[in-house]
Prior knowledge:
Layout: H1 3-43, H2 49-61, H3 65-75, H4 85-110, H5 114-122, H6 127-157, H7 169-180, H8 183-214
Helix pairs in contact: 1-4, 1-7, 1-8, 2-4, 3-4, 4-6, 5-6, 6-8, 7-8
Amino acid sequence: MDKETLVSYIPLYRDALLLTLKIGWQGILFSFVIGLIGAAITHFKVKVLKTIVGIYIELFRNTPLLVQLFFIYFALPKVGVKITAEACGVLGLGLLGGAYMIETFRSGLESIPIIQTESSYSLGMSKLQTFWYIILPQAVSISVPGLLANVIFLLKETSVFSTISLMDLMFTAKDLIGMYAKTIECLFLLVVFYLIMLLPVSIIGALIERRLRYAGFGD
């Protein structure tokens, strides 16, 4: 393994990591918003919208992110909807993650005993107040392990962004291998930088789960 090659490639991987993190976390935040809204719709059993949410979940959970990105990036411009590669990455990751986040939040909401809802109503709280102040905080705490697993899953899914010409970690590795044939060095740096991206999330997630268990959630 050529150490000089490794050192010279590090700035390229650093820039690719920053782009990957930027798009990845924007997509994850978007997926959280979708997850909360979708879970609220299913929780309140909103007619029509609940059916739409169900179709959305099945569609995006049962198709690969690669296919979704191709549709957004290559098919939508054919009908006049043009979108940049970066925006496509955020949108695709957010829509995929949203389907998983809805199910994660939904399972957390369903785990809250019905007596808490009934007790809130008996105290004069509205449905919205009960959901926002009583049910949702507990549901989010219970859902933390699943949410963190989704975050790690989505960050790993960013590896397909290279197919729409985004200079992410995978694109950088493939590009350098194609130009200079330094396969071992490029793949080694690829693994290292993915670990740099994912290990902190995994460690922080484990600490959060432990704190929540001590606080009485997630048992």
